[in-house]
Each structure stands twice: as structure tokens, then as C-alpha cells.
Design a protein that fits this description.
Blueprint (H helix, E strand, L loop, with lengths): L1 H12 L5 H13 L1 H22 L27 H10 L12
Length: about 100
């Protein structure tokens, strides 16, 4: 998980015109590249946690206006069935295929 977040942080650091890139550049000037990447990875993790807990979609405010989108989920993600999870992903615009279980 840590390596994946660091890779995401590297990708964000090379992006253009985003709030997260500005955050990276701010930390880069103060602490250096490695610490800035780790700080950005942690920030991404915090954003992901917030989005999952509040059931929202991420939109960078630099790219477009922020719009809160409530998804039709069960009261808690822990109580969701597999089909409920698939329905949420399909509703968000993803294509999902259920794989056959291996015995």
C-alpha cells in the first residue's frame, strides 16, 4: 500500500495545475523531494479516507468547481453486500464484471 501511494504521489508531482501539486511544491521548497513525496502520499491517503467515509467523489477545485455527490449506499460500507458494491461502482461510471469463484 505504501509503495502504491508513493507512486501516486510521484505522478501527482509531475501533473499540471492541481492543488496537490501546489502542496507538493510547498513542502519541496522546505524539506526536500523525498519528504515532500511522503507528505503528499499521506495527504492522498487522508483524502481517500475522507472520500470513502463521506461517500463522495473527488474533484480537484483547480480543475472544476467542487460538487458534493451523495451515492446511494447502505448505512455502512461494512454492511454492503457484494452486489451493492458492484452497483456503487457501476453507478460511478465503472465497468464491473463479476469473476467466477475458484474452489
Amino acid at each position: 500500500m505504501r509503495r502504491m501511494l508513493v507512486q501516486v504521489a510521484h505522478a501527482i508531482s509531475k501533473s499540471k495545475n492541481s492543488k496537490l501539486k501546489k502542496f507538493f511544491l510547498h513542502i519541496l521548497a522546505k524539506k526536500g523531494k523525498k519528504k515532500a513525496i511522503v507528505a503528499l502520499a499521506r495527504k492522498v491517503l487522508c483524502i481517500l479516507h475522507h472520500l470513502l467515509v463521506n461517500r463522495e467523489k473527488y474533484q480537484d477545485s483547480e480543475m472544476s468547481k467542487t460538487k458534493k455527490v451523495k451515492l446511494n449506499w447502505a448505512s455502512s460500507p461494512v454492511q454492503m453486500t457484494e452486489q451493492d458494491m458492484i452497483n456503487v461502482l457501476v453507478g460511478a461510471g465503472y465497468t464491473v464484471q463479476k469473476m467466477k469463484e475458484c474452489v
